[in-house]
Fold each of these.
Amino acid sequence: MFYWHRLMHNPCVIIPVYNHFLKLPNIAARLADLDLAVFLLDDGSSEPCRQVLDDLSKQPGVTLLRWQKNRGKGAVVCDGLTKAFSDGYTHALQLDADGQHDLDDVENMLEKSRNYPLSVISACRDYDEMPKSRCRGRKLTDVWVWINTLSFTIKDSMCGFRVYPLAASIALLAKSNICQRMDFDTDIIVKLYWQGLEVEHLSSRIIYSDEIPSHFDVLHDNIRISLMHTKLFFGMIFRIPQLIIRKKARRGNEK
């Protein structure tokens, strides 16, 4: 069964893009060296980002999906996952366009996905390397995720560098509304965990650059994240029995 899953591992990369284009040519070149199909998800970008994306879309293995108005990272990633699955891919590595994710870890992420094809593979960043203003919010989100899963399994839930098993992800999208903006990464990984998926982690370096501004809206995105945690909490209450059973089963397997 293990080898069958490895043979069925056909990954691609999806990159949501909203006016971050400085690092994209280098990212695309590195992924081309790995012979990976890439879906660029243009979330209503303006010029010159659109031109960079148009140029990249002419390269072999690159598909450009474009929306004229900004819809939010979560909205376009969900559509990207759906498109990748319909095109026959089994797994999708989500990667940010701003160059913050360490491309040296792409192969390690995909190899871990081959070994755990039914799990979400999530990068885990070192909070000591993160600006304190960002670190506090992420640590608070981690606490809420532990509460909403009754588990310490998920780490760094706001990291957007991860591999999704597409069949399970598309099944989730068909029955659940997933948050559409910066609250997406946490919302989908918690709900995939609720659905029964395991989460495997890989330590990865985060690369910050002052030349690339963040699209995180301190007021509105924090409000969205707070509302998301509230909804997840009430969703967790209905799932307490199954989460406790799962926790006990995991402990039994570890003995």
Note: Residues 16 and 77 are 6 Å apart (CA to CA).
Amino acid sequence: MQTIVGVLRGGPSCEHEVSLKTGATILARLPEEHFIAHDIYIDKKGTWYDRGRPSTPERVLRQVDVVLIALHGTYGEDGNVQRLLDRFGVRYAGTQSFGSHIAMHKVMSKMKAREEEFLTPDFRYIEKVENIEEKVSDIVRSFHQPVVVKPVSWGSSIGVSIVAGYAPILTAVRTLFQEGAFGVLVEEYIHGTEVTAGVIEQFRGETLYSLPLVEILPENNDFYSFDAKYSGRTKHICPGNFSRVITEEIGHRAKTIHRSLGLRHYSNSDFIVSPKGIYYLETNTLPGFTSESNMPIALEAVGVRFPEFLSHLVRVALA
């Protein structure tokens, strides 16, 4: 008997369009001989749809055996939809609610990394709109310029900017709050090469399997912005051109932070290799599966067909 797999995609976040692409990839590549794919769309207002008709989560989820979450950002990666799935007793691939929330919150994940004695860029967290001018003044005095300004809980580099000076930093911070960010992170800019390291649980006979590193080289030495991620102009090298020592160390750190954050099934962690050392940036609990995404590139490099990977996610979710 075939397993009915619900694929959640869309959602009320600024990564809605990226989520649709990830979901479309899963729907197209899920092996038809083993699974029946059930497309579950969530619009930007949070309404659930079943076969194009508005419905309720309870009614939709009653029809599936297991869920693959293709949501990104708010609602999908912050633990909210996982809490809903747990409430209805639905099994799903990926990290549970609490670990998702911790990993999505960049300050909390950085604190976990520091507990593991990882290097991570120094930062200031602006949690409220009040007294922004005073906080930005302190940042300008405390950090070399430029700095990185980013929302504390968004993904895909949406809202991230690299700016220098009081007025540009103030404008960047204010803009993020106006666009709905729950908090803003301002951190030191680290010069170096960005790299991602994926891990998969219970794969190829290993408790936690390391995927090869993906070295990221944006066009014109730009930072890995939203446009750089999805324009098709960024060069991805897999395996990355790093020494054996650095490769093994980053793989070890990706496994360590996966465990430390309490993650489940699979994750992808971002680092920067600089002359000053290896810096941890953040961890994605629901990596994208678009044509430009890093995890599919790493899977292909070790001969893992994407349908095989999806089958594995369904199996570990059902276990």
Note: The domain at 123-188 is CATH 3.30.1490.20 (Dna Ligase; domain 1).
